[in-house]
Design goal:
Strand content: 25-35%
Largest sheet: 4 strands, antiparallel
Order of helices and strands: EEEEEEH
Radius of gyration: 18 Å
Shape: extended
Distance between the termini: 57 Å
Number of strands: 6
Length: 68
Amino acid sequence: MSEEEQPKKKKKEKGVYVHYKITEEGLFRARIFCERCGPGYFMADHGDRYTCGHCGFTRYKPTKAEEE
């Protein structure tokens, strides 16, 4: 089959519900809020840092050497 004949995959739309987890104790935020933008603006987790997609603020995670 050529590329033109293959059906396109539909992307799943993500909603706000992916930023929260419901536990027996209550509601838990899975990501942190941006310090500059305030509540409602979540920061993306990039492994070694958190980044805000709205303002571009970056918070680096402490390394093991810095923690000791």
